[in-house]
Amino acid sequence: MRDEGKVARIGLSEVTTAELAEARRIVDIASVQNRYNLTDREHEPVLAACEAADIAFLPWRAVAWGKAGDRAEVAAVAAELDATPTQVCLTWLLAHSPVMLPIPGTSSVAHLEENTAAGDIVLAPELRARLDGIAASV
Ligand SMILES: NC(=O)c1ccc[n+]([C@@H]2O[C@H](COP(=O)([O-])OP(=O)(O)OC[C@H]3O[C@@H](n4cnc5c(N)ncnc54)[C@H](OP(=O)(O)O)[C@@H]3O)[C@@H](O)[C@H]2O)c1
Questions:
Q1: 34 with 13: CB under 8 angstroms?
Q2: What residue ranges do the domains of the chain occupy?
Q3: How many CA atoms lie within 13 A of 23 on its CB side?
Q4: What pTM did the predictor assign?
Q5: Closest CA to ligand 1's atom 48
Q6: Is the CATH number of domain 11-136 3.20.20.100?
Q7: In sequence order, what are the residues at sequence separation of 6 or more whose Cβ sits closer than 8 angstroms to the Cβ of residue 84?
Q8: Which of 46, 70, 91, 130 would bridge 121 by S-S if both were Cys, CB 3.0 to 4.6 A apart?
């Protein structure tokens, strides 16, 4: 279909590193969409493979249903940044990898504004390291 001009770029969803490698032997892959967020890093190896191949990684459930603040460590970092836990989730994702492209879903304009404002938050190295540690302990 790509050769016929019906498809411009090809993306994959919910793949393992092996499946990504197999697909790349057949065709160029532009993006991967796997479940991933600050407290759910099962697909870290897939993210690493995307980084190595310069493939966009689109985490779904990027804001963990807006419940990241249930983790005391995330709530504490949010308080220090004068931000919301959901903003911390998004800021951490953006800082975590150059190929990261979060796609948070929302039905609320207030949440949309909150989520887009996360792109302006600067995460100091010390806070980023603390958040990295939270994920590693999950
Ligand atoms: N590839 C796949 O297998 C796959 C699977 C599932 C979803 N997706 C895609 O991923 C995208 C996101 O969907 P998702 O299911 O992963 O949802 P999500 O973005 O993880 O979560 C959406 C939920 O988070 C809440 N939320 C968003 N911003 C918030 C905020 N600032 N504070 C508190 N709560 C907040 C929303 O509630 P409100 O509406 O109240 O804001 C909604 O209940 C969609 O485009 C979807 O199609 C892909």
A1: yes
A2: 11-136
A3: 20
A4: 0.93
A5: 60
A6: yes
A7: 69, 78, 114
A8: 91
